[in-house]
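Anyone? Bumping this.
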Amino acid sequence: MMDAIAVAWKEWSEQIGQRGFRGYQGILLMILVFGIVLPLQNGPAWITSPIIGIAWSWVPMFLVTTVIADAIAGERERHTLETLLASCLSDRAILFGKMGAAIGYAGAVTAISLFVGLVAVNLVHRQGGLLLYGAPVVLVMCVGGVLGAVFVAAVGVLISLRAATVRQAQQTLGGAIMALLLAPLAAVRLLPTEWLSSLRPDSATYVQLGVIAAAAFALLDAGVVALATVRFRRARLIAD
Amino acid sequence: MLTSLRDHLTSPAIRTDGLSRQFGAVCALDGLSLEIPRGIIFGFLGPNGSGKTTTIRLLLGLLEATSGSAEVLGYDTRTDATAIRERSGALLEHCGLYERLNAADNLDLYGRFWQISRDHRRARIRELLSHLDLWERRDEMVAGWSRGMKQKLAIARALLHRPELVFLDEPTAGLDPIAAVTLRDDLSRLTAREGVTVFLTTHNLAEAERLCALVGVVHNGKLKVVAPPAQLNAMSETPRVEIIGAGLTEAMMEMLRAHRGVVSARADGRCLIIDLKHAADVSSVVAALVSLGYHLETVRNSAGSLEDVFHSLVEAQR
Ligand SMILES: Nc1ncnc2c1ncn2[C@@H]1O[C@H](COP(=O)(O)OP(=O)(O)O)[C@@H](O)[C@H]1O
Ligand SMILES: [Mg+2]
C-alpha cells in the first residue's frame, strides 16, 4: 500500500509538478473548460438540472484517458521501465500506483472544476439565494465518476502494457473508449420498443435502473481490474 | 527458519546451473553454470550480443529462464525474485533516470520505494551525492546532464538502500575515456566502502582487469572461462618470455627472427620480449643468444595481455 502511494507520488511529480508551466497549463485548461466556460454557458441549469450528475460522470473518465496511456508505454519509451521493474516494488504496487495516480488526478481536477463552476455560476447569475448541487446529483456524480475512472484506468493500463509507443496507446485507448460508449447506445436500440415504452419516467423506476446500471458497471470494473492484475507480470513486460 | 536464514547468509552471492534463455531461434544464454562468492567485484566480460544483459535480467527475475536455474543471495529466481530485488541494486542497460525530475528527487523517489524514512533518505542522498561530486548539482534536471553524470547518479541510486548485491550493466559504455576512468575510480572506491558484491558486465578488457577480482568470459551465450584476471593472463596461448640483459646486437635479433621456436621478438630498452611457439623452446633460444655473446641477467615468464586471452578464447570457438 505504502509503495503504491510512492509510485503515485512519482507519477504526479513527474507528470504534473515538475513539468513546469506546461504541466500546469493542461490542468488549468481543463479547469477553465469544466469550471468556467461550460458553467457560464449553461447558467443556473449547470447546477440545478438533474441530468448534470450523469454529464459529470463522464468528466473523470475523460481526464483519466488523457494520462493513463502514458503509464507503462511512457516508461518503456523513456527507458525507465526496466529499472522500475528491477526495484523492490511489487507488481501490484506499480499497477495500483499508476491507476491510482490517474484516478486521483482526475478526481482532483473534477472536484476543483465543480467548485469553481459553483462559484462562477453563483457570482454571475445571482438569483437571491445560494445555488448548490442537489444531493442526488452529487451521489450520481461520485458513483458514476469513480466507476468510470476506474474502468478507463484499468483498460488504459491493459492497452499501455501492450503498446509499443505512448502515441499508439493513446490511439488504441481512444478507439476502445469510443466503442465502449457507443455500445450501450446500440444496445438500447436493440431492446424491444414495447418494453422501452412501458418504462414510466417516474423517479422510482429511474432509481432502480440507476442502481442496476451502477451494479453492472461495478462488476465490469471488477472484471477489468482483475484482468489487469493478471496481465501485469513483470517477467512478461521485457521479453517482447 | 533459522537454518534457512543461515543458508541465505552463507550462500554464494550468485549460483547458476545450466541457466539458458532462448528468444525464438536465438539462444541468448546457453547453459550458464557459475558460482560467485560474496564481497567481490565479478566481471562478466564479452562482446556485444553475447548474453550479458540477458543474464542480469534472468538473475533479477525480469525474464524467465527457458531452462536451468539460478540462486541469487540464496533465493531462487523463479520463486523468490522479490526477495532478490529487495536486496539488490541495479544500473541496467539504460540508466533509468526520470529526466523530468531533478537529481535529488530521482534518488528520493527510489528511497521511498525502499521505504527508507525521510531523515535517513536525506542523509544517505547527501552522503552518496557528495562522494560522487554531485551534491552541488542536486537541484538540476537530469535531462541536461552528460552521460557520465547520469551514470554516476544511477550508481548512487543503485547503492541508495545499501543492497547486498549490485548489478551494473556496462556502466562505462558510451563514456569518453576520461569520464570512464573517473567512473571506474568512483566505482571501485564506493563499492569497497560499502562492502557490496558487484556483478558487472563489460566488453572492455582493461575495465575488467582494473576492477574485478574474478572474471567470467562469455561469448555467444556460452561461458568460456572463469578466473581471476591474473590467472587469465597466464592462459595466453602463446607463451611469452621477457629476457633482461646487455649486449644485444642486430645479428642476435636476426637469429631470433629466424629461430624455429620463436613467433616474434622485439627489444624494449634492456628488455627483450619474445613470443614462443612452445614454452619448452625457451632454453634453446636463451642458449643461442648466450652463444652469440649476450650478457644474460634474468629470464622470466611474462603474461600476454588479457586481450590476447580473450581473443584466443573467442577465436577458439569459431
Ligand atoms: N527481448 C529479446 N528478444 C529477442 N532477442 C533478444 C532479446 N534480448 C536479447 N536478445 C538476443 O539475445 C542475444 C544476447 O543479447 P544481450 O543479452 O543483450 O547481449 P549483451 O548484453 O551481451 O550485448 C542477442 O543476440 C540479442 O539479439
Ligand atoms: Mg547488453
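Late reply, but here is one note on the structure posted above: The two ends of chain B are 49 Å apart (CA to CA).
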